[in-house]
């Protein structure tokens, strides 16, 4: 492409002169309007030119009551104007040449298409018409039009091509034609259309700052399919003097585990990659949104897949085994103390402490230690109901026995006053009755609890959404705290009565030990309340087991440690005189 017209996006239309087929009279042909060219030169052969020398059109007023005026073009385009001047100079150079088109004069008609389809179509038809208004039986009077150069836009060129399609009779002679012009090969396909061939030009800035046009490739439509385009990538210079292909996106692709968040006010290609929230995943690039995991699943660390949630409960791990060992040791110690008391049941220290009530206390303490084992392991419907009911009834039985013992101790020392026969109201039958009534009340509370809203196993996913905490829901919060409140009431009553009897005479005042044991018991369970409410997951169960074991050990040590010490290690003190404080030194 060596001619000056290479700069233009051109489309050649080979047209023939319109001549009548016969001299048979035809309807009168009249020109309906006039569209003057911007540049015109007569000749034996005519070349048309369409260039958008203006880039905006102001349409006329169209009220359909009179013929509309011609549209006005605005916005002068000097670049397209240079194209038109290049065509004029090229035609003049051809006419001055002795070798190119001898004995023929080449003319031209150059129109302003105003970068619109309608103006381009009008200009294409005006190229075919004569210069003046005429009325004749046939439309004639213009020189043969060989070609039309233009229009610069693709869509405008399509309109011009379809408009000129009926006048293309000469083109039928150019099917499958190949010839050489000025050293370049010109091809026409089977339809008579010229085969496109384009140079790919890269604008580059030279060392001195000037702009250089470097040929970096070629598009040749005559090549085989797939080989039409050839690019020399190493010769391309991108902006900023870069040889690597520029990234044509604003943001990098979002990897799996994240989602695209569009930036406000920015183009669609500009976005931020936001990691998926907990419990959500995305497993493909450029995800618009993250997908929520099912209820029993949780997102992995990369947020790319859902994995089953970890299940947590107080199992027989290190913590569970430690609590199990402590509970078993406590139960064994209690049974051992019971064995010692049975073996020495006829000694003064066992008799004076009401051996029957002591046996009941030791048996209930054994149950308290063992009921802690029910809290360990995976919760089930039966274990959940058994946990709190067994614990509450066992402790109610224990505290009821201590209450009966406290009443006996208090009555025994006040019965020595003249006329006081209170002991006849606190005999063995009455003691058993008191214990039975106090324990039966707790049993009724537990029965109502189990019937109305029993404890049940529950999957807690609210505290920690990444885990499933298997726990025993109490069912009824009111019933749970009512059970604990009743045990606290019995303990407080024992503490008050024992406190009143703490100053009674004797080396072995049982009331002092009961007072101290109830003080430890109440302190443990008062500390249990805030710890139970604030402990997470399996630690809630561990806190409850710890409270059971701590209070049980406190009762066992305070009530029976000194007695066992005297019975086993100091048998010489196991006599009535020592117990009454009448031993002489």
Task: Describe the protein.
The strands form nine sheets. A four-stranded mixed beta sheet has the order 2-6-3-8, sandwiched between helices. A three-stranded antiparallel beta sheet has the order 11-12-13, with no helix packed on it. A three-stranded mixed beta sheet has the order 20-22-21. With about 575 residues, it is α+β, with helices and mostly antiparallel strands. Helix 6 runs antiparallel to helix 7, helix 7 packs parallel to helix 9 and helix 8 runs antiparallel to helix 9. The N terminus is likely disordered. Helix content is about 40%, strand content about 15%. The protein contains twelve helices and 22 strands. The longest helix has about 35 residues. It has three domains: about 190 residues, no CATH class; about 50 residues, no CATH class; about 260 residues, Rhodopsin 7-helix transmembrane proteins (Rhopdopsin 7-helix transmembrane proteins, Up-down Bundle), CATH 1.20.1070.10. A hairpin with a 6-residue loop joins strand 18 and strand 19.
């Amino acid at each position: 492409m060596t001619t000056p017209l290479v700069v233009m996006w051109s489309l050649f239309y080979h047209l023939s002169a319109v001549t009548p087929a016969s001299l048979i009279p035809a309807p009168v042909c009249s020109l309906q309007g006039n569209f003057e060219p911007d540049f015109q030169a007569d000749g034996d052969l005519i070349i048309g030119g369409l260039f958008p020398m203006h880039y905006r059109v102001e349409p006329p007023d169209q009220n359909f009551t009179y013929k509309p005026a011609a549209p006005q073009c605005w916005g002068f385009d000097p670049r397209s104007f240079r194209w038109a001047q290049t065509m004029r100079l090229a035609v003049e150079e051809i006419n001055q040449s002795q070798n190119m088109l001898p004995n023929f004069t080449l003319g031209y008609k150059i129109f302003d298409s105003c970068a619109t389809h309608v103006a381009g179509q009008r200009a294409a038809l005006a190229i075919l018409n004569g210069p003046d208004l005429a009325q004749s039986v046939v439309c004639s009077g213009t020189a043969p039009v060989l070609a039309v150069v233009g229009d610069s836009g693709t869509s405008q060129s399509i309109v011009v091509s379809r408009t000129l399609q009926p006048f293309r009779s000469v083109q039928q002679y150019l099917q499958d034609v190949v010839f050489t012009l000025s050293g370049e090969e010109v091809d026409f396909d089977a339809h008579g259309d010229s085969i496109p061939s384009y140079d790919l030009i890269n604008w580059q800035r030279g060392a001195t700052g000037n702009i250089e046009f470097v040929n970096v490739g070629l598009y040749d439509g005559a090549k085989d399919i797939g080989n039409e385009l050839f690019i020399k990538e190493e010769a391309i210079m991108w902006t900023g003097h870069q040889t690597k292909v520029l990234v044509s996106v604003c943001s990098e692709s979002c990897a799996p585990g994240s989602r695209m968040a569009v930036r406000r006010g920015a183009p669609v290609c500009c976005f931020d990659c936001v990691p998926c929230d907990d419990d959500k995943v995305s497993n493909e690039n450029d995800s618009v949104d993250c997908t929520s995991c099912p209820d029993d699943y949780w997102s992995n660390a990369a947020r790319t897949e859902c994995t089953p949630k970890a299940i947590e409960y107080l199992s027989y791990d290190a913590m569970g085994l430690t609590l199990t060992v402590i509970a078993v040791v406590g139960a064994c110690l209690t049974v051992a103390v019971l064995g010692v008391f049975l073996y020495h049941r006829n000694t003064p220290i066992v008799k004076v402490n009401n051996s029957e009530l002591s046996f009941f206390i030791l048996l209930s303490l054994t149950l308290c230690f063992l009921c802690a084992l029910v809290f360990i392991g995976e919760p089930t419907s039966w274990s959940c109901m058994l946990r709190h009911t067994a614990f509450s009834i066992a402790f109610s039985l224990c505290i009821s026995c201590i209450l009966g013992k406290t009443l006996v101790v208090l009555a025994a020392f006040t019965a020595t006053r003249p006329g006081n026969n209170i002991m006849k109201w606190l005999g063995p039958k009455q003691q058993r009755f008191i214990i039975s009534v106090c324990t039966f009340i707790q049993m009724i509370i537990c029965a109502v609890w189990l019937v109305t809203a029993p404890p049940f196993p529950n999957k807690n996913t609210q505290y920690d959404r990444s885990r499933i905490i298997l726990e025993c829901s109490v069912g009824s919060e009111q019933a749970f705290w009512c059970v604990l409140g009743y045990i606290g009431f019995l303990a407080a009553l024992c503490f008050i009565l024992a406190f009143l009897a703490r100053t009674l005479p004797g080396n072995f005042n049982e009331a002092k030990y009961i007072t101290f044991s109830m003080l430890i018991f109440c302190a443990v369970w008062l500390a249990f309340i805030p710890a139970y409410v604030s402990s997470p997951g399996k630690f809630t169960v561990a806190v409850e087991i710890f409270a059971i074991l701590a209070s049980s050990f406190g009762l066992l040590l305070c009530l029976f440690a000194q007695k066992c010490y005297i019975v086993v290690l100091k048998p010489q003190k196991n006599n009535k005189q020592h117990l009454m404080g009448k031993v002489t030194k």
